[in-house]
Amino acid sequence: MSTRIHRRTLLRGLLGGAAVALGLPTLDIFLNHHGEALASGDAFPKRFGVWFWGNGIGPNPANWVPKGTGADWSLSPIMAPLAPVKDEITVVSGLKVYTPNVEPHGVGPCGVLTGGRAKDGVWASRTIDQVIADQISSDTVNHSLEISVDRVDSCPSRSEPGKSNPPETDPAALFNTLFGPTFHLPGDMTEPDPKLGLRRSVLDAVGEDAKSLRARLGTGDRARLDEHLDNVRSLEQKIAKLEAAPPVLDACKKPAAPLPEYPDIDGRPQISAISRVMSDMLAMSLACDQQRVFTFQLTHPVNNLLFKDAPSGHHQLTHDELGDQPMVQDILHQILAEAAYFIQALKNIKEGQSTLLDHCGVLFMTDCSNGKSHAVDEYPLFLAGTANAALQKGIHYRAPLGENASKLGLTLLRAFDVAATSFGSDEGYVTQGLPAIEAQ
Length: 440
Fold this sequence. Notes:
Blueprint: E1 10-15, E2 18-23, E3 47-52, E4 67-69, E5 72-74, E6 89-96, H1 107-114, E7 118-119, E8 122-123, H2 128-136, E9 145-148, E10 158-160, E11 163-164, H3 171-179, H4 194-214, H5 219-243, H6 271-287, E12 293-297, H7 314-320, H8 326-347, E13 350-351, E14 354-355, E15 360-365, E16 381-384, E17 396-404, H9 406-415
Parallel strand pairs: 3-12, 3-15, 6-17, 9-12
Antiparallel strand pairs: 1-2, 4-5, 6-16, 7-8, 10-11, 13-14, 15-16
Helix pairs in contact: 3-6, 4-5, 6-8
C-alpha cells in the first residue's frame, strides 16, 4: 500500500453541515531525505536577487579583498559587518568590467548585469534578473519585484535596453501590494475578492473592442495598440494568479505592517529603518512565492544621502574626503550592516529542513570600485545563498586579476537553469563561467 501523500492534499470534513478544507504545511513526508526537495522530485523554488548600493567602496579597492582563499579566508576590515553571515556568503574578487568606462557609475552595473556597454543611460540589453525571471517565474503573481530604500524612480533592473524597471520606495505601498486585500495565507479557503472578477470582465470587454478597432488603424497605431493589449493580457494573467489557490508553503506568514511614513529626521532619511522593514517584507513575499526574482536597491548611483554621523552626502564625500576616507568607510559599514540584516532575514525563514536563504542566490554589488575615479576593476562583489546547491558558499574565490566580470553573469544564468552558452557582447562577451564557485 502506497504511503505517498501529495503536497497539495487537503484535510476535509464537515462543520455545521458545510464542507470545509484545510491545507497541509510542508511536511517531511513531502521531502527527500535531505529535507530540501519535494518527494515528487520538485525542488523548493529557486529565487534570484540583486542587492545594490551606489558610490563604490572607497579610495583603495584592494582594501576590500579578504585574506586567504577557498574555505580558509577572513573578512577584510571593510567587510567586518558581514561577520555574522560569513559562512553564508562567497566573495568573488579580481574581476574587471572591460566595456568602455564612458559613463561613470553606469558602466559597472551594466557590465556585470548585461555583459555589454552603457552609453547615455542606455544599457546594451536586458539585465540577468529579467532573463532569469523568464526561466523561473512563470507561475508566480509577479514576474519580478523591484524595491528601493532610496526614493528614486530607477534601479539596476532593465526589462529592455533603455528602460529601468521603476522600484517601489514606499514601505506602506509595498505592504499593500504584497500583503493587502488580495493576499491569502496558504490553506485559507477565503473566496477571491469579487472585484478581481469584475476587473477581468472589464478587461475582456476592452480587449475585444480594441481588437475590432485594430483593422482600422495605421501601422504605428497598431503597434501601440498591440503593446497595450500585451499589457492587458499581462494584467489578466496576474489577476488569474491572484484568484488561484496560494502555494502550500508553511513558512508563509503575513508580516507586521510598516509605519504609514518614515519621515527624515534632521534632514537624514531613516535608511536603516526603511531597509529593514522592506527586507522583512521582501523575505516573506519570497517565502509566500509571490515572486522569485527581485532587485533591492539600498541607494542609487551618485546619491548624496546623509548617512548617520556623516557631515555631507555620500557621493560628495567619495570625491572630497582626503586620505583613506574614514567617513566613507563608515558609510560602507552602515551599508553592509543592512546587507547582513537581509541575509539573516532570509536565513531565519525555514523551508523544509533548510532555509529560504539556501534556496536563494543573491548578488550583492555596487556601481564601481573606487568611488572617486569610478574604476571598474577589482570589482567588489559577493553572493549569498546557494540556489538549491547550484553555487558554493563560505568561500573566497580570488580570480586571476582582471578576469572578465561577465563570467560571473554566465555562471549565475546557469545556476538558475538558463540554457546559456555565452553571455555579454563586445568586450564583455564570454563563453566560460566561474566553475570555482559552482557546485562541485
